[in-house]
């Protein structure tokens, strides 16, 4: 093994170890939440509020509604932490809880016209916002059907794998791939139409 390949292998194994430790730590923190430790819930909030808010915001299209759904999510996590069975990562489980809370809140609500914040409101900008920083892309994303929007947000903004997305959405991996394929085609069409 040459030096470059060895360094890459060591970095990969180091990253894999860090992810495994983070997953174990998340599991311990969630167990503390299940035991009634409010400080542990705060730890989870500090770790996952940004990506969960970004996901919920893209589903709701409104900052105020997204904040309410995030609070609903935290309450649901507090109440149901004891049901976590370690079949997926804690982060995947949290996204599933957030998705269910969003669907409960948004049921019967017409989809948003745009996922843009109102003038002067900053929806926690960060890497997830920069990933779709182009106005054309954001407008196109808001026009996607909700099932496709969920998959795109989880894949590209929250960087979940196909398997993790399938767990969050409780659908087969093949359906995730199909929705991503259709969403990409739809997004490409929207962006192309606006540039013409």
Automatic annotation (TrEMBL):
- All copies of the RNA polymerase sigma-70 region domain together span 44-107
Key words of the record: DNA-binding, Sigma factor, Transcription, Transcription regulation
| Record's protein name | RNA polymerase sigma factor
Extract the InterPro entries matched here: RNA_pol_sigma-70-like, RNA_pol_sigma-70_dom, RNA_pol_sigma70_ECF_CS, RNA_pol_sigma70_r2, RNA_pol_sigma70_r4_t2, RNA_pol_sigma_r2, RNA_pol_sigma_r3/r4-like, WH-like_DNA-bd_sf
* Transcription regulation listed as a keyword: yes
Identify the domain of life. Answer: Bacteria
The yes or no answer to whether the keyword Transcription regulation is present is yes
Q: Where is the RNA polymerase sigma factor 70 region 4 type domain?
A: 136-187
**Record-stated family:** Belongs to the sigma-70 factor family. ECF subfamily.
Q: Which residues form a coiled coil?
A: none
Q: Which Gene3D superfamilies match?
A: 1.10.1740.10, Winged helix-like DNA-binding domain superfamily/Winged helix DNA-binding domain
């Amino acid at each position: 093994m040459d030096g470059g390949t060895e360094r890459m292998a060591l970095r990969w194994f180091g990253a894999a170890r860090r992810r495994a430790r983070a997953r174990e730590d998340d599991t311990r923190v969630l167990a503390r939440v299940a035991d009634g430790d409010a400080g542990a819930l705060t730890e989870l909030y500090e770790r996952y509020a940004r990506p969960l808010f970004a996901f919920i915001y893209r589903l709701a299209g409104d900052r105020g509604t997204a904040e309410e759904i995030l609070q609903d999510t935290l309450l649901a996590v507090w109440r149901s932490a004891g049901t976590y069975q370690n079949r997926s990562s804690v982060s995947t489980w949290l996204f599933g809880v957030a998705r269910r809370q969003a669907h409960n809140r948004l049921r019967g609500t017409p989809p948003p016209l745009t996922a843009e914040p109102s003038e002067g409101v900053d929806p926690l900008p960060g890497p997830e916002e920069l990933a779709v920083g182009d106005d054309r892309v954001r407008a196109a994303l808001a026009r996607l059907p909700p099932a496709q929007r969920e998959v795109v947000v989880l894949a590209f903004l929250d960087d979940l794998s196909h398997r993790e997305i399938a767990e969050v959405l409780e659908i087969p991996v093949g359906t995730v791939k199909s929705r991503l394929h259709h969403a990409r085609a739809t997004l490409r069409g929207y962006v192309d139409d606006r540039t013409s």
